[in-house]
Write a structure and sequence with these properties.
Layout (H helix, E strand, L loop, with lengths): L7 E7 L5 E13 L2 E6 L4 E4 L6 E3 L4 E5 L5 E6 L5 E8 L3 E4 L2 E14 L5 E4 L1 H10 L4 H19 L9 H5 L4
């Protein structure tokens, strides 16, 4: 495990057709066996490239995990946020600059709700629409759907990194 740092790092999300989706700049906290951890303290600006809002400030401290070669990334949020863990199904992250990671958002989200611990898969309809609209290849569909099922199981059974190890990374934001 590498130690905490103050290096700024940008996380860029795009859609499958290449258009910008959203971006956030956080602090590179370090790496461990699960991947790269990025801290986004309460008040961090998230910039959107769609809808009526162009930016929003985060309401809680969060850490984001970018696993190596996985089809997902996770955001772990401090209380009192509605979701404890919010996972985006993505193409595997790429380091696209010295302080930048880029991913392709594949619509599916897997969320563990804080109140009752329920795990839900969200935006399956959006995934199906975009699968047709953008012509997701079979390997992308297989990678995304497998990731969603893997995440559903891991979040439901408290498998690391979802069981609580993330709390150590969250504590570094204080």
């Amino acid at each position: 495990m590498t130690g905490p740092g103050s290096e700024r790092v940008e996380l860029v999300l795009r859609k499958y057709d290449g258009r910008p989706h959203r971006r956030v700049t956080g602090r590179l906290l370090g790496d461990d066996e699960h991947g790269t951890w990025i801290g986004t303290p309460r008040g961090t600006i998230v910039r959107y490239s769609y809808g009526w809002r162009r930016f929003e400030r985060t309401r809680e401290d969060s850490v984001r995990l970018l696993p190596r070669d996985a089809w997902w990334m996770a955001m772990f949020s401090a209380a009192p946020g509605r979701s404890e863990i919010y996972c985006d199904v993505i193409t595997p992250p790429e380091r696209t600059g010295p302080a930048q990671f880029t991913v392709i958002d594949l619509d599916l989200d897997v969320i563990r709700l804080r109140r009752d611990g329920r795990v839900v898969i969200d935006d399956e309809d959006e995934f199906e629409q975009n699968r047709v609209r953008f012509g997701y290849p079979a390997d992308v569909v297989a990678g995304a759907t497998a990731a969603a099922e893997t995440l559903r199981s891991a979040l439901s059974t408290d498998t690391e990194p979802f069981a609580g190890q993330y709390r150590n990374w969250l504590s570094r934001l204080r």
